[in-house]
Amino acid sequence: MTTPQNPDGFGQDPFNKPDSGQPQYGPQYGQPQYGQPQYGQPQYGQPQYGQNPYQGGPPGMEPDNNLVWAILSTVLCCLPLGIVSIVKSTSVGKLWAMGDYAGAQQAADDAKKFAMWSAIAAVAWWVIFVIFYAVVIAAAVSNTA
Q1: Region (Disordered): which ranges (predicted)?
Q2: Which residues in the chain belong to E strands, given as ranges?
């Protein structure tokens, strides 16, 4: 189909729509609308899984969970305080993954605190034990003489 503007027929509308001479603005059916997310595409700026939308992104690296110190204090020092330290240190990663960054830092600090208290309790126990043993030996030696 030739027109006065296009005498050789190239560039014609394949659907034979009448050309009104005006460009069509706005969304066409079946065409993506710019600025709108499409199905299955990530929406940037939206919180992803594990992020709390009210706290923003993570403030830095995950805090050290002090698990090694917790295990050593449990095995070598004081069992009850060491167990509490292990429980606190294992909750650091879970809290961080859920987006509770302040809670993860608090759990890491608590794990370190309980591990230190376990070590201090063990040192105090051994000091008391050595003093008691020395008193018992001194009493036994004085009774035999």
Answers
A1: 1-61
A2: none
